[in-house]
Amino acid sequence: MALIVQKYGGTSVGTTERIEAVARKIKGYVERGDQVVAVVSAMSGETNRLLTLASEITNAQSSRELDVLLTTGEQVTIALLSMALHHAGLKARSYTGGQVRILTDSEHSKARIRDIDDQHVRADLDSGHVVVVAGFQGVDEQGNITTLGRGGSDTTAVAMAAALRADECQIFTDVDGVYTTDPRVEPKARKLDRITFEEMLEMASLGSKVLQIRSVEFAGKYNVPLRVLSSFEEGGSGTLITFEDDSVEQAKISGIAFNRDEAKLLIKGVPDQPGVAHHIVGPVAAANIEVDMIIQNIAQDGTTDFTFTVHRNDYEKALRILEKTAKELGAAEVVGDDKIVKLSLVGVGMRSHAGIASTMFETLANENINIRMISTSEIKVSVVIDEKYLELGVRALHEAFQLDAEPKRV
Amino acid sequence: MALIVQKYGGTSVGTTERIEAVARKIKGYVERGDQVVAVVSAMSGETNRLLTLASEITNAQSSRELDVLLTTGEQVTIALLSMALHHAGLKARSYTGGQVRILTDSEHSKARIRDIDDQHVRADLDSGHVVVVAGFQGVDEQGNITTLGRGGSDTTAVAMAAALRADECQIFTDVDGVYTTDPRVEPKARKLDRITFEEMLEMASLGSKVLQIRSVEFAGKYNVPLRVLSSFEEGGSGTLITFEDDSVEQAKISGIAFNRDEAKLLIKGVPDQPGVAHHIVGPVAAANIEVDMIIQNIAQDGTTDFTFTVHRNDYEKALRILEKTAKELGAAEVVGDDKIVKLSLVGVGMRSHAGIASTMFETLANENINIRMISTSEIKVSVVIDEKYLELGVRALHEAFQLDAEPKRV
């Protein structure tokens, strides 16, 4: 018997038929003796329906009132799922964020959880109830309704699991786990049984959009074992996201992440003097453009080259800003390229295995793929390459690091 | 400057355009210096949409979860109206029933208000906000969401007005006030400027469905002046429902109410002995059929006749029950008629004016309208007549009591 917190997203509860399917799935866990807390999102389409109503009235919506509006979405789902659980013969009780008392700060639309009162939920579990909790929402000290921002239901699930010291937090989604890379790019991609939190963070931030980054951070902070599972397939064990410990597969590399939404900007021949990096990046950041990789070459002849990447949507805007900066600094040239991708090897095994980066570079060189930028961290190596080489690069690296094979235990 | 609680029903907030119109209406009150609390219902159609979702899952819905589901309807409206008020340049804050803290008992779907915490609402009013409150809903001691039952938004408005000691509670509806009778039956029907609570109770229960009876009782209990106004017309003063005091027009009769939904049942020749009334009405009540008028004739020859009226929908069912009872009692005959109507004169002036009933009977006799049943209370006289005479009877009485003329002050 285990205490499990399960999260079902908008697609999993998108119709009353799907809500009934979720109830049957939960019933399977209850029948094998588990205690279940189900955290649910709004039915898919509902949030957009509500946003449309709001936009018919004004585009300058109070974030407090927008939270009041949007939280009705999950409230509808908790009531319907509880009814479906009753219909399936189970005891069940629904809770809004405020009713659990998921206490947050007062930052409407992006509130952070401060505390969770587990008293009522625990009493209901102990008396044999399935507890159904509205995701994405909480309440501040003054009783105002808050939301955790888009995708916040994952965070609610992890936070509930942490508060209840649950044995596992299961995120039901439309994929059946985390893969070594995107199966649409490399059909030999293999589902991972386990992945560490740190790897998952790198995979998520690099574009493997299975889980919200914040919920993964949260799970890591509170030692909550997190499992990604498919809502629609039966019997799969998904991917367990866990701490690095003895039982973890000691593969060198867990996976290959990539991000197509990048663009790079290069400013050449800027004076190599203190403050120049700030002079270049400052105006970009001030324009609310997020800068990803930043590389500065070693200075030659008193000047240096400075390269960074931004989201492709911000490319034109960043280019204009940089051209202005170039004039101010008397730089030689500004060059941009929005036909690039970032490709990253991720794996905790890198820490103890030398030569990962050189194997990566060699593999790409063998395919005549030119590397434009390189950036490394403790558990990843990222390269920027021309967009057209993405699929070739992913497949070559997947092969070179034998990611299609089950890893050997070390 | 006055403190006004206004209630806007589902039709008044049925679209975002109408919500914007309500915001403009409220702005007019604020600009003349009033403090406004707006109590709103779910947008028309929304409650039925939610009920349909629930019925797709099960027809045996938990009343607790049904309340969780349905209360999202008003929560959407409070958010949208607050946004519309902001857009109109006003300060506004929304409150769910739980956020106000409208404390109720735990009778889901028909909860009764126990207490209202006016602290937050009053603070908001004092700082220049319009306060927007979700009607129909509350919360019990344990924090469960409850509803007051259909039409409960009127009750919420009156209860808020009582708690805040508001100067007036205004119920915005699709009629512009209370009339001496239904203008569709008697075009000369006149809008009343004032009517007493007691008269309004009689008018409401007799079928003038302008207000929920419970909210009128509530207003009377807590001395809340209640005004019925049109949502759609500008500038009308509606009808003020008030206590009987010196300023009230001392008309003999305020209005003529009628009810088309009645059917009557007669059981003839039952033994005139103790317990017989219970023996007849008991099984009808046990079948959940509400009995309206009950009349027992004076006994002759040791037997008596017993007549009562029920809602027309319950006619067939009541008839079958009565036939069974007749056999048990050895009664002579059971006769039923579902082509009847009840017609009532209502007025506090009756108390001090003799002869109202005889004028009524004379007027009907002059039109050859046969009276089938008569029942009187302190402020009303009701008669049951054949359905076909309804319009004729109403117009004749309206004329006889000069209801089209402004009343003289006494």
Give the averaged pLDDT of chain A, no decimals.
Answer: 89
Proportion in β-strands of chain A? 25-35%
Query: What multimeric state do the chains show?
Result: homodimer
Broad CATH class of the domain at 3-173 in chain A: Alpha Beta
**Envelope shape of chain A:** globular
Number of helices of chain A: 12
Distance between the termini of chain A: 32 Å
CATH architecture of the domain at 3-173 in chain A: 3-Layer(aba) Sandwich
Largest interface, C-beta within 8 A: A-B, 38 and 38 residues
- Order of neighbouring strands in the sheet with most strands of chain A: 3-6-2-1-9-11-12-10
CATH fold category name of the domain at 3-173 in chain A: Carbamate kinase
- Which residues of chain A form runs of ≥5 with pLDDT under 50? none
How many E-type strands of chain A? Answer: 20
Notes on the protein architecture:
2 copies of one chain form a homodimer. Chain A has 410 residues and is of the alpha/beta class. The first copy, chain A, is globular. Chain A has a domain of 171 residues: Carbamate kinase (3-Layer(aba) Sandwich), CATH 3.40.1160. Helices cover 35% and strands 26% of the residues of chain A. At the A-B interface, helix 1, helix 2 and helix 3 of A face helix 1, helix 2 and helix 3 of B.
